[in-house]
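queue> pop job 88
queue> type: inverse folding (structure -> sequence)
queue> payload:
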């Protein structure tokens, strides 16, 4: 473990009235990266050694106190000084050390505050130990010091839930000693420090206290461990958090701290935590991406179906005025009713304050004609997935809307440039591909058309962000990123149905891999007629007679999915439980015989390999073609829009975790048995040959872009 020289500017130090004010300044979130740890340690030791200093105050610069350890460092072995060791020195200080929580104190940031002797917080601060969301446990003493402060049960709740709490709740729990009034946290903190000095307050070191565990019922820890492991399957951290808190009760501080440190390292190195950390960064909005966005207050949503209503709900609950437009009086009335009912249900469930719900409902108006879009800053079209219909809508919008209006289409597969060409302002047109149900699903693919201007792209991203969505920029091409990959995945599902696997066997194999649902259950849920229509619209539809053959036959036999109780499965009235249907089996058998396919057993491993390798290969092609901008984007899209297991980090990260050479060998094997669909993507072959991963490729690309001053 190499030691590096401290960089003092990361922790400013000055003295006021005998109080050393140490300001952590590592924007944007004051993460405790190695140079910050070194600088903090040096500043604490210097203040300790200075006889003129009577107390130390630690505060963050900007809006945050400290958002935790630097998550980027976790992919490499730890570097000294370790946060644990720095915090032990802070705690050992002989002069009172006061943490001033001027803003967010998360993870290692809260652990730093717990190592201080006193904590005060501004009313706006939030506090939490969210490590479990990254598949980690608090690794810098949080599992030991927090239970000493709030008891084992409350500490477990905070660490297993990972949800930050407000400063007032932290005060009630006893984590915060003093809530600061006013807007100047530093001034409040200094006043508190002076009071402590005047009162000759001794340092309060949590390590010297014991955990109050007298009230815990027998078997408390065993029961909590079982619950925690069940609630978050596949992660080591939940069980370890309970183990470490139990150790806090039963073992001396040093021994239990050492245990927590070992457990943290095990978690840090696990594939599940690596995957979650990868997704943490993949899901951050790219810095600067919303710069130059136009102001959007009023949005027109065209089409009052399920998608339009879902989009309108998200817009209205995020403060936008919405006009829902549909020529059908019945559809628009049903849409408005659905919007109100969904918002009221959210209020009833306590997810939305009742006043906020009422305001959101009041923000939605309805209209029958596209002229009503004239006053909007942004129009989102969500009509029937047909090029002819969409072009007609855009031609009319072009006539009725002012020149600065952004025109977005919610197409899931169609060519955004062709839609844009129905207008005289293709630069104003962008794709905003929402996922159903749009009020719940977080993902929005923001499709850059050939002419979409930077301001239009920035506006779409900014609106998505304000809606609480994850907007990811993709290029224009059939199915964009998510659905184009879905077609490769679905292609293998469909072929395996003809080759000998049942819908239930395929779904079971992919669910045990971790997919939220199997492809056949998903098809039934979405409605098989939707994909059928899209395939009919597609000009470059493959000519292979096996291509989506089973899906087409199901629709042609009137089996549309859950909506009419019959799809790849059958459904009892009122039930969503997929039941195997002998009629489907007979239909598949007859078709396989007609096509001359010899049926065979298809093993679960083959099902998983064919579906996931098809995703990886298509993802690599999308990267080559520039339709996906990064492998991390592909992963974020598949984890947020298609139920790919988060603990595997997305298809491209998963490829890296099993090794690109192994993926390539698998694909080449499938090519030999199943033909040219399995031609390996050039990028995959190139990376595998160089022993690289898609993450390496992303890193290289962002280094090149940064060198050229490009903001994505
Ligand atoms: N480490 C490294 N980078 C971080 C970071 C962290 N802990 N937290 C945030 N960042 C980066 C983001 O990647 C983003 O970078 P970018 O501008 O290059 O995209 C930038 O900081 C700003 O982050 P956000 O876009 O998320 O800003 P918001 O204002 O929306 O949210 C936040 C701020 C609430 C602090 C949010 O970033 C967050 O939740 N961060 C993670 C907090 C966390 O999980 N802490 C625990 C870390 S693990 C730990 O501490 C282990 C310890 O026990 C030893």
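queue> result:
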């Amino acid at each position: 473990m190499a030691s590096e020289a401290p960089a003092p500017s990361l922790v400013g130090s000055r003295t006021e009235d005998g109080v050393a004010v140490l300001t952590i300044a590592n924007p944007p979130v004051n993460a405790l990266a190695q140079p910050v740890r070194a600088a903090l340690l040096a500043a604490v030791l210097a203040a300790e050694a200075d006889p003129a200093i009577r107390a130390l105050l630690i505060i963050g610069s900007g809006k945050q106190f400290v958002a935790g350890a630097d998550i980027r460092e976790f992919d490499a072995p730890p570097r000294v000084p370790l946060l644990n060791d720095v915090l032990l020195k802070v705690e050992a200080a002989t002069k009172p050390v006061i943490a001033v929580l001027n803003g967010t104190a998360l993870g290692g940031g809260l652990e730093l505050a717990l190592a201080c002797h006193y904590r005060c917080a501004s009313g706006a601060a939030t506090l939490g130990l969210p490590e479990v969301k990254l598949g980690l446990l608090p690794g810098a003493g949080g599992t030991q010091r927090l239970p000493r402060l709030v008891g084992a049960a409350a500490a477990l709740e905070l660490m297993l839930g990972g949800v930050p709490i407000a400063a007032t709740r932290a005060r009630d729990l006893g984590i915060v000693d003093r809530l600061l009034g006013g807007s100047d946290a530093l001034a409040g903190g200094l006043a508190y420090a002076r009071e402590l000095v005047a009162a000759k307050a001794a340092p309060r070191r949590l390590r010297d206290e014991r955990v109050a565990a007298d009230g815990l019922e027998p078997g408390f820890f065993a029961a909590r461990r079982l619950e925690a492991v069940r609630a978050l399957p596949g992660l080591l951290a939940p069980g370890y958090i309970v183990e470490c808190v139990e150790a806090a009760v039963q073992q001396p501080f040093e021994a239990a701290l050492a245990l927590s440190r070992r457990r943290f390292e095990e978690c840090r190195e696990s594939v599940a935590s690596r995957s979650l950390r990868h997704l943490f960064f993949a899901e951050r909005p790219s810095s600067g991406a919303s710069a130059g966005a136009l102001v959007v207050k009023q949005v027109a949503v065209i089409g009052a179906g399920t998608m339009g209503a879902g989009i309108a709900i998200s817009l209205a609950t995020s403060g936008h005025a919405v006009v829902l437009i549909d020529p059908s009086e019945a559809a628009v009335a049903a849409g408005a009713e659905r919007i109100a009912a969904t918002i009221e249900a959210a209020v009833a469930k306590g997810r939305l304050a009742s006043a906020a719900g009422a305001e959101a409902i009041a923000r939605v108006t309805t209209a029958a004609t596209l002229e009503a879009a004239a006053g909007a800053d942004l129009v989102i079209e969500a009509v029937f997935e047909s090029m002819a219909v969409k072009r007609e809508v855009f031609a009319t919008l072009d006539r009725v809307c002012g020149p600065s209006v952004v025109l977005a289409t919610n197409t899931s597969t169609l060519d955004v440039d062709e839609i844009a060409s129905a207008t005289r302002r293709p630069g104003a047109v962008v794709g905003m591909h929402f996922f159903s149900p749009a009020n719940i699903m977080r993902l929005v693919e923001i499709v850059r058309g050939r002419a979409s201007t930077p301001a239009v792209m920035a506006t779409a991203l900014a609106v998505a962000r304000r809606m609480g969505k994850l907007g990811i920029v993709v290029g224009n091409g059939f199915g964009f990123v998510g659905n184009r990959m879905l077609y490769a995945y679905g292609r293998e599902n469909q072929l395996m149905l003809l080759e000998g696997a049942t819908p239930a066997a395929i779904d079971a194999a992919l669910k045990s891999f971790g997919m939220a649902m199997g492809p056949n259950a998903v098809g039934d849920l979405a409605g098989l007629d939707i994909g059928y229509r899209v395939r009919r619209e597609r000009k470059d539809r493959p000519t292979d007679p096996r291509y989506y053959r089973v899906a087409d036959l199901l629709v042609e036999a009137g089996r549309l999915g859950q909506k009419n109780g019959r799809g790849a499965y059958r459904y009892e009235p009122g039930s969503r439980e997929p039941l195997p249907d002998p009629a489907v089996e007979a239909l598949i058998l007859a078709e396989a015989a007609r096509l001359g396919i010899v049926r065979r057993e298809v093993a679960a491993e083959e099902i998983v390999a064919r579906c996931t390798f098809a995703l990886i290969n298509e993802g690599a092609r999308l990267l080559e073609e520039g339709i996906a901008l990064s492998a991390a984007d592909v992963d974020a899209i598949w984890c947020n829009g298609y139920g790919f297991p988060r603990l595997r980090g997305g298809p491209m990260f998963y490829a890296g975790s099993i090794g690109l050479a192994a993926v390539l060998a698998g694909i080449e094997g499938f090519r030999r048995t199943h033909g040219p669909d399995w031609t390996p993507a050039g990028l995959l072959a190139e990376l595998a040959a160089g022993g690289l991963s898609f993450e390496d490729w992303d890193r290289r690309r962002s280094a090149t872009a940064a060198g050229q001053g490009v903001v994505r």
